[in-house]
Amino acid sequence: MEEKFMKEALKEAKKALDKEEVPVGAVIVKDGKIIARAHNTKESKNDSTCHAEILAIQKACKKLGAWRLLDCEMYVTLEPCSMCAGALINSRIKKLYIGADDAKTGACGSVLNLLGDYKFNHTIEVKKYILKEDSEKLLKEFFKFLRERNKSEKKSV
Asked: Smallest Cα–Cα separation from 76: which of 19, 137, 8, 22?
């Protein structure tokens, strides 16, 4: 079941990749059904808060008509940053499944661990490395594309 839902998050990440966004995708599941899905749109929306996790939380809240996402699980292809980890705590997500670590901004164990090292009013169960290689492959593909594009832009100047 975990891989099934992470594959859906990966589909969202591929949508971001197609839009030249950092390929991160997220889905929120309640009672075994996807209730929200999203991908990064930071670049296209020119909005630093348009992370896949934030957008998925907003959609799930709208669908459920509540800000508390009790008994909901999130599947996300890349470890959430501190903003997104905070939103997960505040939305009361029950469980978080992560594809790949984020060694630069990860706030669920890589750089810091907001979900485990601090005493908040809500705790979230975390499970990492669901389809890790698939998530990492998309990210590597994206950053390779950016490096190649930057090289060709420098040559044409």
From this structure: 8
